[in-house]
Amino acid sequence: MKVGILGAGQLARMIALAGVPLGVEFIFLDPSADACANKLGEHLLGDYNDPKLLAQLAERADVVTYEFENVPAKTAEFLATHTQVHPAPKALAVAQDRLVEKTFFNDIGIPTPAYAPVNSLADLEQVMPTIGYPAILKSRTQGYDGKGQSVLKSSDDLANAWDVLQGVPSIVEGFVPFDREVSIVAVRNVSGAIVFYPLSENVHRGGILRVAQCRANDALQAQAESYATRLLEALDYVGVLALELFEVNGKLIANEFAPRVHNSAHWTIEGAQTSQFENHLRAILDLPLGSTDPVGNAAMINFIGGLPTTEAVLDIDHAHLHLYDKSPRKGRKVAHATVCGDTEAQLQGLIKQLSALADQVDDS
Questions:
Q1: What whole-number distance in Å separates Cα of residue 322 and Cα of residue 358?
Q2: To bridge 283 with a disulfide, which of 108, 189, 227, 254 should be the other Cys (CB 3.0-4.6 Å)?
Q3: Structural domains for the chain
Q4: CA–CA gap between residue 290 and residue 278 (Å, rounded)
Q5: Over the stretch 331-343, which tens digit does the pLDDT of each residue have?
Q6: 294: which DSSP letter?
Q7: What is the distance between the alpha carbons of residues 219 and 199, in angstroms, rounded to a whole number?
């Protein structure tokens, strides 16, 4: 069985690492010659819209998936007319546009912050009395890890924020005074079987995820699963999906979803019976889904911009280092570590040690 992946970054790399023991082969399409997954399969080097490369990928892959949501939707739509593509192109199209995404959430009964489309500074000035301050102005497309966003604290910020986004079609969202940021990672296979991982409790800084911790038996697990199920069914979704949520006074409000394996569930590599990466492959190949039960008390810590020494990470008990084979660069995710503690108290101590290492090399 050969799986094609659009993109050959660290997520594709981890999918492939999970697939090799299952006898799965991989073919990647990526425009970067030094893409970090290319050592784990064949690399088609070129643009995502290259018709010759897409034809090769469709002919040689039994199924195609993607590692990030900024792959052109038309690319996925073209491939879907020639081979299986999971998740379906519709999921990609919805996730790529924040306005479409928020509208879709509301249409299927998932609550969101107050929002409004903005296409000019005049639009922004007109809607702010309804949205209120503080708020966040975001580009409708191409934003991730805090990019394409500007915080609005008062009317004095509007003109500069609009200039920062360079006049692109945008959306303004009311600020959510959240108690926690969490995510639910769900998996659905071709036959329609669904499993969920325990909620991840997430800590961001500068718009980038720093720590994700498994929260088994969380009181909001059922609510999160109900929202994720609506998404999976409405999109006829196949594969891993992550829904990012805010907790506000014991209720969940949707932020966004990712139609792919997700950074907040990297702890599943060592911290769950079956990792999100293996389950993604099981789902798109219509194999039985693996158990999502946690193994101990698990967490993930990102290394952003720079790397500690391997020895420093591995000197911490229960730590597992995952290097991405990517050169350090400001704001770039270059590795992560997972830890599994026997008790919650032990886990918090391990997170503290690894976070200190991450802070020493942080160049975000």
A1: 13
A2: 189
A3: 2-85 (3.40.50.20), 114-174 (3.30.1490.20), 180-361 (3.30.470.20)
A4: 8
A5: 999 999 999 999 9
A6: B
A7: 10
